[in-house]
Amino acid sequence: MIMYIKVNDGIITDVKFMTFGCGSAIATSSIATEMIKGKSIKDALELSNKAVVEALGGLPVRKIHCSVLAKKQLRQQLKITMISMELSMIKKNTVQVIVLVFINMINMIKLKFSVQ
Question: Is 72 inside a domain boundary?
């Protein structure tokens, strides 16, 4: 199972999934993605496999593992999304710091040459 999550301003705006398996695997993946749309990542991380099963109106006992797999994959992808967002912010902040250092260096050079 593969999931793709789109986040804007900390809110999950879109979720896509691709899974190979039985109908229960497809159904649990589908309902899990629908259940987290419009939620924050923190709230989405709290989704339980029990909630997924209840949203489907139940699953046969031998298919409960499908809800567990959907929850695990969703959590894994949410964590990857969070890390990606953090790295993006670090990169953005690093670029801003480099630009500020560069501007300060230019100003120091200008000052040095204007004094002489």
Answer: yes
